[in-house]
Amino acid sequence: MANDTARLEFRMKTWLKVLLILAGIFFLGLAAVITWTSTSRPAENGIWLADIFFVALGLYFLLSAFLSRLVVDDTHIQIRGLLGEKSVELASIKGYRTIESRNASFWKLELKDSKKTVLIRKWFDCAQLREWMKRLTDLDEQGRQEVLSQIEQDQELGATPEERLKKLKTAKIWAVVLSVISIPAALVLFIGIDHWQLPCFIVLALVPAVALLLMNRQPLVFALGKPKRDPRADLSIALLVAGIGLFFSGIQLNFVSIMALAPSFVAIAVAFALGFFVYGRKGPKTPGFVLFVILFAAGYGFGLVAICDTLFDHAQPSPYQVQIVNKHTVSGRSTSYYLDLAPWGPLHEVNKLSVTHDIYDAADPGDVICLEEHPGALRAAWYEMVPCYAPPENAPAQ
Q1: Residue 218 lies inside a defined structural domain of this protein
Q2: The pLDDT of residue 44
Q3: Torsions phi, psi of 349, nearest 5?
Q4: pLDDT of amino acid 73
């Protein structure tokens, strides 16, 4: 970093610059190795595409390390990078927001007369730059103070500003409580502990309804997703846990045909999505809000109807004895174990059943397992593996 009286120039942090240089050298070296080894296999498809990709990646890292810089003075900001140079007058800047994510951290400059934004990477971050940035308006802090001011003035929250601000603290306690009870409920429901399945299901099913009620009654103190510095209580964690818990508990169930659940699933998903769009529109406008609501509504809706169909199904099941024709595993981040079953009952082709590692190891092709088919509380037939204590007298043929 170099500076004079009116001009400051910031370069990438040394450790990051070294890291990018090493990454660039690695990918260029990888491209060279691919080129050298491909000379003996000139007809192999895709080699030259991989070569171009790694060369481009290597050059991107190297050039970014050497060309990236930030220049500021009393009148403008100038950002230089791989793709050119961008300059912004200070007088045209409305303020800045701090954005932090897993992939990148940066300051986002918002302009007064334009919807365009300018990004300053945090790899220029240092004490001197932070001191210089104080001349710009911190829009995150400005927004925080505006929300607190609105809360203090809202007479529906209490008689005095102090009482109204206490409602904000109470709202944060509600958000924590909903999250705390949702996490164990989701785990217990997924594991499938019989005596606790119903109460845990009820908890997860009611969490979104409670969140909607809270957002409807007190939209100033509750939010669904919010910037880090926003003072409101965030309900998104509780909703995320409820949606994921119901979804993953639902997808591990075995249905003869899932299409019978489609009308109920779509109706619930659309209803909750509309509800959160309506009551969340007054909250902070965070990136990904729409996507979050859609994904939550889909996961929640599917899990809710799938578990309702099985958990409240008390009809007499139909027993079957089914032969194992093969078995296989599917590997990814974890390994899943499947038994390939001969056609049986409503399934007229070879089908698979997900099982635990112990059942998979104990089973061999030619063995017979026992299944029970249930009609489903919502008329979506489902089945489960049960112990073969004795051959059922009324078991249908395969």
Answers
A1: yes
A2: 52
A3: -130, 165
A4: 83
CA nearest neighbour of 179 among 197, 204, 199: 204
Over the range 293-323, which residues count as b (16 or more CB within 10 Å of their CB) and which as e? Answer: bebbbbbbbbbbbbbbbbbebeeeebbbbbe
Q: pLDDT at position 67, please? A: 85
pLDDT value of residue 254:
92
For residue 41, give both structure tokens: 């296999």
pLDDT tens column, 342-371 = 999 999 999 999 998 999 999 999 999 999
CA–CA separation, 122 vs 284, rounded Å?
A: 24
The H or E element spanning position 191 is helix 161-191
Encoded tokens for 37: 């080894």
Same-domain status, 182 and 119: no
Residues of the chain with pLDDT under 50: 1-5, 43, 392, 397
The 8-class DSSP code of residue 192 comes to T
Phi-psi region of 379 (alpha: psi -120 to 50; beta: other; left: phi over 0): left
**Is 151 inside any structural domain?**
no
Give the C-alpha separation, 373 to 92, whole Å.
68
Give the span between the Cα atoms of 393 and 398, in whole angstroms.
Answer: 14
Dihedral over Cα of 244, 248, 251, 254: its sign: negative
Indicate the number of domains in the chain.
Answer: 3
At residue 5, the pLDDT reads: 46
Which residue bears the tokens 């958990």? 311
Q: Is residue 395 part of a domain?
A: no
- Give pTM, 2 decimals: 0.74
Q: Are strands 8-11 and 2-3 parallel, antiparallel or unpaired?
A: antiparallel
